From TrEMBL:
Pfam families, alphabetized: RAG2, RAG2_PHD
Gene designation per UniProt: Rag2
GO biological process: chromatin organization; V(D)J recombination
Family affiliation: Belongs to the RAG2 family.
Keyword Cytoplasm: no
Name recorded for this polypeptide: V(D)J recombination-activating protein 2
GO (cellular component) term, any one: DNA recombinase complex
Lineage: superkingdom: Eukaryota
Keyword line: Chromatin regulator, DNA recombination, Metal-binding, Nucleus, Zinc, Zinc-finger
Domain Recombination activating protein 2 PHD as annotated: residue spans: 415-492
Length: 528
């Protein structure tokens, strides 16, 4: 094993505990950023381009027919193929936490649509399910099993918020273990069925799960109810005959008491288990090799890498499987760093250089090996790792645009998170959707006063009906501050002119007509 430090050139503050990695055509994509996506990358999905020990993040796009996908932390993710040997696949994403700490119960399908040197486009679709639909949760796992020519997904574990009827003011956002039920999901018909197995007594979260053919092995995990890390090794076998599926569970010896471990595949039948925690105050620095052969599992301790002093002495660590025996590890940065949320990152390679060039492994495996937020449970439970097949340093799009957080507008001054008025209470860290039309940003409306400025509809006490009418009608709107001023500056209404009675025309003076003899007599007298 070899350990190599890398420097994060752009936007390393987005890589926080709880993220996921997706692999399409050998390229690693980051999903589950800290905070809501910004304008430079509204999808929240980035290509992780690692070259010459430098990590760069490049935005990815969604197709026009895609649904909205929020940045989910601690979801369950796995690949779905038509059969075990198929080359084409898509990712299943279920559950997770939004930046507002709300839990999702939705399930998404994500596939690669097109890829060029400058643009990568995905399609994301939401799937509706019926039957015993799993509740909203995080820290769980989902795997795909193949039996008798059919495929189904298996969901297990996780945590959820305390039911509303049991919440108190002091523990309003406290979390509990989900019931230890096993959910079988048939995506062809869109139905779910839950199974209660006597061998599974306690809820588990942040465990490792590895699937092969019709069998899933569940290793480790943390139980909130008992505050323990299970030493049991569970074997779930799913039989898919023509009738109803059959699910059986067997408890095997040789398990490991660990949570938040990372599993990466190094060959068709071998996996390496790295990292995690033995207890709330003790990291797990040992490594183990997992071998799956002939419906059997063998776990043996292997040689650990030469951990750096920073890794040995840090209180927490997190990471993800990068595929082909490589793991991305992160530890908190020093307090003296200029960037507040920056972390140090390492790549752990569990195979030799020659083996890294082998063809990409296709054995299905998924590990929801994450720990928890510090406020939710144990102090060290603060990482999220998944097991995927991905190649981090094989993307050659040098001319692709690199995402840089410094290029973003300061949304504390502009954009959706401004202080629109003196009574504005919209905060990016605490905001939750108020109108049914809102997704990840608050609804805003333009005040036509002066040069115009934007205000939050919620701060203006606008009902949803009025807001829709204003958006549809071609009328000017004035905010609460300027509505009275606008009334004072309005041009007075035109008043009709008063109708004056017409003046009577002057009467013509009557003139006397003189005869010719009279005129001559008058003239004689005038000249005499």
């Amino acid at each position: 094993m070899s350990l190599q430090m890398i420097s994060a050139v752009s936007n390393s503050s987005l890589l926080q505990p709880g993220f996921s990695l997706l692999n399409f055509d050998g390229h690693v994509f980051f999903f589950g950023q800290k905070g809501w996506p910004k304008r430079s990358c509204p999808t929240g999905v980035f290509l992780l381009d690692i070259k010459q020990n430098e990590l760069k993040m490049k935005p990815a796009a969604f197709s026009k027919d895609s649904c909205y996908l929020p940045p989910l932390r601690y979801p369950a993710i796995c690949t779905l193929r038509s059969d075990a040997g198929a080359d084409e696949y898509q990712y299943i994403i279920h559950g997770g936490k939004t930046p507002n700490n709300e839990l999702s119960d939705k399930i998404y399908f994500m596939s690669l649509v097109s890829k060029t040197s400058k643009k990568i486009t995905f399609q994301c679709l939401e799937k509706d399910l019926g039957g015993d639909v799993p509740e909203a949760r995080y820290g769980h796992t989902i795997n795909v099993v193949h039996s008798r020519g059919k495929s189904m997904s298996v969901l297990f574990g996780g945590r959820t918020y305390t039911p509303l009827a049991q919440r108190t003011t002091e523990k309003w956002n406290s979390v509990v273990d989900c019931l230890p039920s096993v959910f079988l999901i048939d995506f062809e018909f869109g139905c779910c069925t839950s199974y209660v197995l006597p061998e599974l007594q306690d809820g588990l979260s942040f465990h490792v799960s590895v699937a092969r053919d019709d069998t899933i092995y569940i290793l480790g995990g943390h139980s909130l109810q008992n505050n323990t890390r299970s030493p049991n090794l569970y074997k779930l076998k799913i039989d898919l005959p023509l009738g109803s599926p059959a699910v059986t569970c067997t408890i095997l010896p040789g398990g490991i008491s660990v949570s938040s471990a990372i599993v990466t595949q190094i060959s068709d039948t071998e996996f390496v288990l790295v990292g995690g925690y033995h207890s709330d105050s003790q990291k797990r620095l040992a490594c183990h090799t997992i071998v799956l052969e002939d419906s059997k599992i063998e776990i043996v301790e292997s040689v650990s890498p030469e951990w750096t002093p920073d890794i040995k002495h840090c209180r927490m660590w997190f990471g993800c499987d990068m595929g082909k025996g490589s793991v991305l590890l992160g530890i908190p940065g020093a307090n003296k760093q200029i960037i507040p949320d920056a972390n140090y990152f390492y790549i752990l390679r569990c195979k030799g250089t020659d083996e890294d060039k082998e063809e990409e492994l296709i054995t299905q495996n998924c590990s929801q090996t994450s720990s928890e937020d510090p406020g939710d449970s144990a102090p060290l439970e603060d990482s999220e790792e998944f097991c995927f097949s991905a190649e981090a340093n094989s993307f050659d799009a040098d001319d692709a645009d690199t995402y840089n957080e410094d290029d973003e507008e300061d949304e504390s001054e502009t954009g959706y998170w401004i202080t629109c008025c003196a009574s504005c209470n919209i905060d990016i860290n605490t905001w939750v959707p108020f109108y049914s039309t809102e997704l990840n940003k608050p609804a805003m409306i333009l005040c036509s006063s002066g040069a115009g400025h934007w205000v939050h509809a919620q701060c203006m006490d606008l009902s949803e009906t009025i807001l829709l009418r204003l958006s549809e009608a071609n009328v000017k709107y004035f905010c609460n501050k300027h509505v009275d001023l606008n009334k004072g500056l309005q041009t007075p209404q035109k008043v009709g002119c008063l109708k004056k009675p017409p003046m009577k025309p002057l009467r013509k003076k009557k003139t006397m007509k003189l005869s010719t003899s009279t005129k001559k007599s008058f003239l004689r007298r005038l000249f005499e």
